[in-house]
TrEMBL record:
Native organism: Meloidogyne enterolobii (Root-knot nematode worm)
Name this polypeptide is given: DnaJ homologue subfamily C GRV2/DNAJC13 N-terminal domain-containing protein
InterPro entries referenced in this protein's UniProt entry, alphabetically: GRV2/DNAJC13, GRV2/DNAJC13_N
GO CC, one annotated term: endosome membrane
Residue spans crossing the bilayer: none
Gene Ontology biological process terms from the UniProt entry: endosome organization; receptor-mediated endocytosis; regulation of early endosome to late endosome transport
Domain DnaJ homologue subfamily C GRV2/DNAJC13 N-terminal per the UniProt entry, residue ranges: 1-377
A matching Pfam family: RME-8_N
Length: 378
């Protein structure tokens, strides 16, 4: 259909192919529901795929232009682009707007070799439970990070498929297993002396991605405020990983924090969402640090993915309808802090990524509509 091929945003890319040593020039276009490859000279459609078929994206850490698109049928496409992160932010936004909440960005990891079932299929309940137990009871000769990576490779990004409590005698055991896994993953440490910094950063990213999946479950979402010690340990972990100042780690960290603000599971309780927001957003120094991430990346003109994720974080806090569960004092504090950095946020309206422009617009609208007159003028 015409509307499926009418693109909202287009990027010049170089497509690498196994049968060709020379990259091919392409226009990578994103429409309402499709990702489209066009010939840049004739504008003819080369191929089109539904955004719902996109499984995940591999973002090369060594080459700032390369990325891989992995589809649900196992197909992999390699591209390079000068505006890679802006392109990826647009892709993620487009896919999620189509209902594809499994789309995510990772650093190069051998997900395919760790899959227990083909792409496009989900594990059954027993297999998911087994993966959780492997994180707690590590097989001989392996490390917990190996089990974390296997868990990430097989469990959807938007959480366990069978995380809801079931009726019966063992109804509580599933939630307890998830909470035990949370505690184990949060406390996971790495032997800094034996591993290079690059490998450590990839392991930390995997750790944060695992926490994202666990917090997406109902038991994990509730555990943040109801289980003693998890909030404090998570806070320590977040502070330590953000000190590394690595884009892919920052992105994984903010994505994980977004899971605590907006539940990913069905039949959630608004009271728990309110408690999570109160616990996560009540520390002003923590909020200052997150907002400084936006300032730093905007100033350096880097980190489009980090900026987009932070704008989602702010949207879940101050933008309707998500703001209805944000405590009033926290809401006012965040609006004030964002308003003080208003000039930085206005710079985002000139960003090449429309996703970031849209996110900045939502936040600025909230400031204009909800804050006091003096802050709205800033």
């Amino acid at each position: 259909k015409d509307e499926q091929l009418t693109s909202f945003v287009e990027f010049n890319v170089q497509k690498s192919h196994i049968n060709s040593l020379v990259p091919i020039r392409r226009l990578l276009c994103i429409s309402e529901s499709c990702i489209i490859e066009r010939d840049p000279l004739s504008y003819a459609v080369i191929c089109a795929r539904n955004l719902n078929t996109l499984s995940y994206i591999i973002r090369d850490l060594k080459d700032p232009q390369k990325f891989h698109l992995i589809y649900s049928n196992g197909d992999e496409r390699l591209y390079s682009s000068n505006d890679r992160d802006s392109l990826l932010a647009a892709l993620i936004d487009g896919a999620r707007s189509c209902g594809n909440y499994q789309i995510h960005v990772i650093s190069p990891q051998k997900y395919k070799t760790m899959r227990l079932v083909p792409f496009g299929f989900c594990l059954d309940e027993e297999a998911e439970q087994h993966l959780l137990k492997l994180i707690l009871q590590i097989p001989p000769g392996l490390k917990r990070i190996d089990m974390i990576r296997r868990f990430n490779a097989n469990v959807p990004y938007n959480g366990l498929s069978y995380s809801a409590p079931s009726e019966g005698f063992f109804s509580d055991s599933k939630g307890k297993t998830i909470i035990s896994c949370l505690e184990a993953v949060i406390l996971e440490q790495y032997e800094v002396s034996k591993i290079d910094q690059h490998e450590i950063s990839i392991q930390i990213e995997a750790q944060l991605s695992c926490l994202h999946r666990l917090f997406a479950a109902k038991a994990g979402f509730q555990a943040f405020t109801t289980v003693e010690g998890i909030r404090e340990r998570l806070g320590t972990l977040v502070v330590s990983v953000l000190k590394r100042k690595e884009e892919h780690v920052d992105y994984a960290c903010v994505e994980m924090l977004c899971t605590l603000l907006q539940p990913r599971h069905a039949n959630y309780e608004l009271r728990i969402e309110q408690l999570n927001k109160q616990a996560l957003l009540s520390n002003k120094l923590f909020l200052e640090h997150l907002l400084q991430l936006i300032v730093n990346n905007v100033t350096k003109k880097t980190g489009a993915l980090v900026i987009a994720s932070l704008l989602d974080f702010l949207a879940f806090t101050v933008c309707a309808p998500y703001s209805e569960t944000t405590p009033g004092d926290v809401f006012d504090t965040i609006l004030e802090m964002v308003a003080q950095r208003g000039r930085i946020f206005y710079k985002l309206f000139h960003h090449p990524s429309l996703t970031i422009v849209k996110g900045a617009g939502m936040v600025m609208r909230a400031i204009i509509e909800e804050s006091s007159r003096e802050f709205a003028k800033v």
